[in-house]
Structure formats: structure tokens, C-alpha cells
Amino acid sequence: MVKAYARGDLAVALRLHERYYSLIKDLFIETNPSPIKAAAALLGQMEEELRLPMVPISAKSREILKATLRRCGVLKT
Fold first, then answer.
1. Among 2, 37, 39, 50, whose CB has the most other CB atoms within 10 angstroms?
2. Structural domain harbouring 31
3. CA 23, CA 52: separation in Å to the nearest integer?
4. Nearest Cα to 1, choosing from 21, 26, 22?
5. How confident is the model at residue 16 (pLDDT cuts 50, 70, 90)?
6. Per the domain annotation, does 77 fall within a domain?
7. Minimal CA–CA distance to 29: which of 64, 76, 73?
8. Can you tell me the mean pLDDT for 42-46?
């Protein structure tokens, strides 16, 4: 999105922004970095390990994040 904007391709930048806006928003559904770590774990990129005072996101937030990852085409299963 940033590269498209920088090269002046505003239509592509806007399309990408619209596609991923809900994901960007939901990555802040709870205190960071827990949602980002949860998303990375859902994508199989890492184990979801947190050190105090960080805690895992709630089950409800996890389902919202998983649905958003699917809707954006990032999570296939």
C-alpha cells in the first residue's frame, strides 16, 4: 500500500487500504502486542508465547481476529 502510494498509484493504494483496514483495526482489538502475536500464531509463524505483564487475548477477540484474517484472505483455513 505504501509503495503503491509512493509511486503515485493511488487506486491500488486505496484498494489495499480498503482490503486490509479491518485487519489493521482488529490488530488493536486488545492491548498490543498480544493481538499481533495471536495473529502470527494463527498463521503458523510463531508460537504464541507471552511474558508478564502481557496476557493472551480473550477467546472472543481471538474469534474476531481469526474471522478478519479469513475475510482479508490472509488466513486460508
1. 39
2. 2-71
3. 25
4. 21
5. very high
6. no
7. 64
8. 96
